[in-house]
């Protein structure tokens, strides 16, 4: 690793265009664009030395090895997508069991697998109901892909780990502090069992982000002093209530609009950008102060915009902004400012010096020329399978949990109008998992609306400190 670092710096020093920064390292496509106007890159002081941080080997296709049987838990849009991504990642793998709350979703994915991959899922391996996850995990699979609504993921991960299964966990991993603590404890158990756990924060398997991360760790922008992260887009999908659906069924089918199921969109969607923040800085937020509101959302009980100021552990401030409103300015990207320059993914992945000159730009065309597989949703499965087959454990859940908790902190500050700290939120008893959950009847909830029925056509006003049940 030391030799690699010296070689990189030697290259940078001898480059004809001062300030050009190379994208080299494990799995690199040597995607380099040099632009004039930068400073002396050889003077970089690494934030972390190569070999002290994890870099995935982003090859096109997983190596051959042990045959793997997978179970899918959550057969909706993301679960179906993850199933195909998994099957595209390697030879010698298959899917043998499906589970979802609802039979139509299981049957839809079974039909998709038959049509696209010629995989037959027999009826006795199609499980439905709120306990379908247990039946999938106990069906003889080696690995599980968990893509249920986020509130269910901690308990699904916990059971999979107890049974010794490798897990792929779609993001976010939890929606409240009780789920967070369950997740962190389970991640430690998975590591102790040498299991491989990869999460659906696909930026960690997107080459432009990985190459950027290596350069920033090598000191390309100096010490990080601040930044902004955005997920500003339009409203997501929603489900109209159908005759015969109970409150519970409607909410689970419409899960992306309900706080107890999704965690609100700052948690469900914006966690991607917050994950980049916590990954690149290597820090968690010390506190959060924010606000938000509900302007145009037509269903559910969550906000459609948030603005959060995060103070990180070392005192720097980062602004987080997310919005789900149609016909507004869209921006899904990140910006980090450093003492030597800046890094941005707005309109391309670039590093600039302090004068605003582009000194490095990720070359997506070079990536396409050097690699057959450029989809990070598939590459995360390639990496997961390679870790399983090589016997080299990986555990990403605890890292993703930091970004997840940052999102929860921002949400709670916006809901309550108070400053929320890391310490108080990670110790909070807030539990959004329903005390009574029944697909046929109305439910009594914990957390928001504690002890009261959900009034589906009312927006639940949230004020004061969160309260709830300590245990799940």
Write a concise synopsis of the structure shown:
Helices cover 33% and strands 18% of the residues. With 472 residues, it is of the alpha/beta class. Helix 2 (77-87) links the parallel strand 1 and strand 2 (93-100).
SSE topology:
Elements: H1 2-14, E1 68-73, H2 77-87, E2 93-100, H3 103-117, E3 126-128, H4 132-137, E4 143-146, H5 153-162, E5 166-169, H6 177-192, E6 197-199, H7 207-217, E7 224-233, H8 247-253, H9 259-262, H10 265-268, H11 271-281, E8 285-293, E9 305-312, E10 317-324, E11 331-338, E12 341-344, E13 350-353, E14 358-361, H12 364-370, H13 376-390, H14 397-416, E15 420-421, H15 422-426
Parallel strand pairs: 1-2, 1-4, 2-3, 4-5, 5-6, 7-10
Antiparallel strand pairs: 7-11, 8-9, 8-15, 9-10, 11-12, 12-13, 13-14
Helix pairs in contact: 2-3, 2-13, 5-6, 6-14, 11-14
Q: What labels describe this entry?
A:
472 residues, 15 strands, 18% strand, alpha/beta
Structure description:
With 472 residues, this protein is of the alpha/beta class. It is built from 15 helices and 15 strands. It has a 9-stranded mixed β-sheet. A hairpin with a 4-residue loop joins strand 13 and strand 14 (358-361). It is globular and about 65 Å long.
